[in-house]
Amino acid sequence: MSLSAHLPALQVVLPLLSAPLAVLLRHGGFACAVVTAGAWAAFAAAVGLWLQAGEVGVVSYHIGSWAPPWGIEYRVDRLASFVLLLVSGTAAIVLPYSRASIEREIPREQHYLYYAMFGLCLAGLLGITITGDAFNIFVFLEISSLSTYVLIALGRDRRALAAAYRYLIMGTIGATFIVIGIGFLYLMTGTLNLADMAERLRDVESSRAVLAALAFLTVGISLKLALFPLHQWLPNAYTHAPSAVTAFLAATATKVSVYVLIRFWYSVFGESLVYVELPLPRIMLLLSLAAMFAASFTAIFQDNLKRLFAYSSVGQIGYITLGLSFDSIDGLTASIVHLFNHGVTKAALFLLIGGMVIGLAKSGTVPPAPTFDRLAGLAKRMPLTCFGIVIAGLSLIGVPGTAGFVSKWYLIVAALEKEQFWLVGAILLSSLLAVAYVWRFVEVAYFKPAAEGTTRREAPLGLLIPAWLLVIATIWFGLDTSFTVGTAAEAAQQLVRVGK
Amino acid sequence: MTSLHPALILIAGALLLPFLRGKARNLTVLSAPTFALAALWLLPEGKLWQVQWLDYQLAPLAVDKLSRLFATIFLLMAVVGGLFALRQTSRLEVPAAFLYAGSAVGVTLAGDLVTVFLFWEFMAVGSTLVLWSAGTPAAFAASKRYVAVHLAGGVILFAGVAGQIAATGDASFHAMQVDSISTWLILIGFLINAGAPPLSAWLPDTYPEASWSGTVFLSAFTTKTAVYVLLRGFPGTEILIWVGIFMIFYGIVYALLENDMRRILAYSIVNQVGFMITGIGIGTEMALNGAAAHAFSHIIYKALLLMSAGAVLAATNRRKCSELGGLFHSMPITTICGTIGALAISSFPLTSGFVSKSMVTQAAIDGHLQAVWLFLAAASAGVFLHAGIKFPWFVFFQKDSGLRPADPPASLRWAMILFAFLCIALGVYPEPLYALLPYEVNYVPYTAAHVITQLQLLLFSGLAFFVMLDYLKRTPTITLDVDWLWRVAGPEVAKSCRLALVETRAGFANGLANGLASIGALIARQRRPDGMLLRSWPTGSMSLWVMVMLLAHLAIYYLG
Fold it and tell me: Whole-angstrom Cα distance, residue B219 to residue B310?
């Protein structure tokens, strides 16, 4: 068997192995090299899997050659391959960025631990996405969650510890709910393989235990994906974590949770149960709208730029789940595209902010929090960074020519298709809130006079280049949509076809 | 996609300009639009660029006779405007103006609604920057009002475009019927840029606040792009006749009451665009030809008038008619050029205005629209009053204000002379213009009947001006206000109305202010570290929410 046949296993194993290696090396530089190599290999594997899934539809891999439903199956369909690309791609860009970024944010003797945790987190997220086994999802979820808590706690600010602790409590509750849900399903079907489970569920549908499983899973995953009102752990975690960690988590962690939700709804419980027999879409619609408005509104009044964009993430997740509430291929496509586009945009934003705080700090000191009073007249000092933030901000608003526009366009098309005209109004209105919070940055950075004697001092190049790569990506995916929309549409069709 | 896009050439020039100084800058200012113009004329007709975007077929570059006509005049305007603005010290203005002009060209060469919308928004950005670059607080305030109106217009247009594309599945830009919400929205979006009621006021409110050269650019593109898209999208839509006539009279009445020379000209833009929109509303081939030709000649003479006003402003730093006068002593070239522009706007025979506007009037006659024709004829007299005589008379002649500024420097002079030449040339020899028009022209402007009718009209209104000169002269002391109309119509009614209005307005403002203040206070309260907006949630309350959500889900599943 050639190497390409084992890509699904390599996808997870390579980053997973890089983590203990990093610990054994006990040296920041070597650890960085090993984990970055792991992430790049994972990215290459993801590209390979995307191509394979494009050819054969679903790539199924039996771990240890044990055939499912007894053995563990790795299953890559269109959606999984898309999310794998997003996760491994973000890691491949964030890791080289980390080197210069954590230099100032994390004590040197802890660097190798940072990389080890990063590798674990990456392996966990990739594992969740690729596995076709319910219990495996839980295991990988725990791997990624535990390493995430550590990563957040590595922030220099002492509040990072509190934020990580809060997230730990909430994340554990969420994981417990998920494992209870999986337990119920196992009880009812006697299998852990997702495809097999879906098959057997048809005979026992809508028994109370299955409904309880759905409730536990939905709420547990909602917590992990920070659906309003279960988002409260997110702002602090994003604000106080090291910059690179925030960028990675914002682009991937919540997105993978959305993926898990889609997976359970469409591939396990099936469309007919979730959308036809239960009022779940209406609940989703309501919570999504609440997220779009309440979280975006709260974002306007934040004093810390990182916190502002953290709340904006909660609002943007509202758009993703809004697409899920439509029960149409267009809506699902919009969700999947926004999942990707928002991931790219937010990663760009947080990477730029990471560079900005380094530029703000006096050399050799810990970077300060990016509060608005420190940002006055920043555009003079860091024109490239500020311009990048403006472009990414435009994508958050959904201005044509940026990635954000494409996903909003599909959301609007999906709403029009359902003849929900008021929803179109709501989507546009909530975009205005995004205008307001992005404008706050523009006003302070471009129109407030800078303090006396500021000179041009751009963020270090090692931080600017990865960030701008992503900024360019937000424009690229706004203009050329064949990759994003094409893959998402195929994924949506595949999901709906199988779910029927 | 091998052909060059003229709009992108100009926009590339705009992006390059801020980095250039001195000779290189001047050269780029003149050559970028010239290249674009050459590129435009090298393009064959048809859809030259085709792009697949989302599920739609877009044509960002599509050329036919109509789009070539408008793109030509826009680029010509950019060349001469650039020449006029060579001495502009603001480093932002000319690049912004080129972005603005380039986007206007982009709209005219767009074969689909998405591209139209995209360039439409760029145009709003460019024009706002032009206004802004005047650098005065008044201009900054005006630019904010301006951008607010145009962003609102853009949102309406976008909603219309999205609806239209979703409904028909076709993104191409062609003539539409006003029969659905989305086409209405598109029409409204277009009309807002044309300066149509009820939002006409954005134009005279903001254009005069730009710098001496900025207003020249502003006068040319936004409204005429709107005329272009209406010509293409909504020819023969009857409501446009009445919208146009309203604009014509709105422009005349307010221009007569105005004292600021550039505001007079700004009102007369609304008035002139009104003629074009009426022509579009009539919708016969003759009327559409007339509207297009009038847009072409209007851009030239309106720019000429505003250049002469700009030259006066640059030389004297005054803009009120009552403070100017007698400038012909020391500014002969400006006076002559300004007067030629004034004659052209009044459609004097042998000027460009005559050969284009008379086509619209003729179309009204041919269509047996007596009422419309009557309005247009009356308006022609009104145009002569407010722009044809009032502007040159009060600025260059009348009493001597004692000012003796010299004629402007060469670049400004040549720009004016060039356009003055074009005004006369097109008036004497209109065939090249007629050849550019979208439909075949079977119209002869210089018949005895046309010329005599027009001269009579002009003579009598000229007479009226000088008879009522004393009365008109007093206008400088009157500030423009809706109030003024009330005082003439019925002082008593006005007084009570006004009182009531003031009271309700005060009440409303109070209520609003209180409401806003209480919302503000609420937000301020919640922004404290322990407020709703900024606090960090304790794990207890977060867990509580999780339980609430779980119970809600379970309850709804089991009961639902």
Answer: 12
Q: What is the pLDDT of residue B304?
A: 93
**A399-455 pLDDT, tens per residue?**
888 999 999 999 998 988 888 888 888 998 898 899 889 998 998 888 888 777 667
pLDDT at B486 over 60: no
Quick check: A128 pLDDT over 90? yes
Q: Indicate whether A164 and A309 sit together in one domain.
A: no
Q: Is residue A349 part of a domain?
A: yes
Which token pair is A21? 């290696």
Coil vs helix vs strand at B50: strand
With contact defined as beta carbons under 8 Å apart, do A130 and A58 qualify? no
Cβ–Cβ pairs < 8 A, chains A and B: 90
C-beta atoms surrounding B333 within 10 Å:
17
The per-residue pLDDT for range B114-142, each reduced to its tens digit, is 999 999 999 999 999 999 888 888 888 88
In a domain? residue A266 = no
The distance of B113 to chain A (nearest Cα, Å) reads 13
Does A22 map to a domain?
Answer: yes
Q: Are residues A166 and A306 in the same domain?
A: no
Question: Rounded distance, CA B73 to CA B437, Å?
Answer: 12
Rounded Cα distance, B360 and A82, in Å: 59
- Interface membership of B550 toward A (CB under 8 Å): yes
What is the C-alpha to C-alpha distance for residues B368 and B555, in angstroms, rounded to an integer?
72
Residue A95 lies in domain: 1-170+235-259
Name the closest residue on chain B to residue A429, using Cα atoms. B155
Angle between the A243-262 and A329-360 helix axes, to the nearest 10 degrees? Answer: 170
- On whether residue A209 sits in a domain, the answer given is no
Q: In B, which residues are within 8 Å of A219 by CB distance? A: 546, 549-550, 553
Taken as a whole, chain A contains a residue count of 500
Cβ distance of A301 and B546 shorter than 8 Å: no
3-state SS of B237-281 is CCHHHHHHHHHHHHHHHHHHHCCEHHHHHHHHHHHHHHHHHHHHH
Phi-psi region of B478 (alpha: psi -120 to 50; beta: other; left: phi over 0): beta
* Closest Cα in chain B, distance from residue A302 (Å): 7
A81 and A125 housed in the same domain: yes
Of B527, B537, B552, the CB nearest to A232: B537
**Residues of B in Cβ contact (< 8 Å) with A424:** 159
Residue B159 is encoded by which pair of tokens? 């909603």
CB contact under 8 A, A232 and B545: yes
Is the Cα dihedral B267, B272, B276, B278 positive or negative? positive
Say yes or no for a CB contact (<8 Å) between A219 and B553: yes
**Which residues touch A134 (CB under 8 Å, ≥6 apart)?**
A182, A185, A186, A192, A193, A194, A197, A268
A166 and A298 share a domain?
A: no
Same domain, A159 and A292: no
Residues A145, A252, single domain; the answer is yes
- Counting the structural domains of chain A, the total is 2
Domain boundary (A210, A227, A259) is at A259
Amino acid present at B122: F
Burial level of B224, CB count in 10 A (0-12/13-18/19+)? buried
**Residue B121: closest CA among chain A residues belongs to which residue?**
A400
Q: Cα(B338)–Cα(B265) distance, rounded to whole angstroms?
A: 12
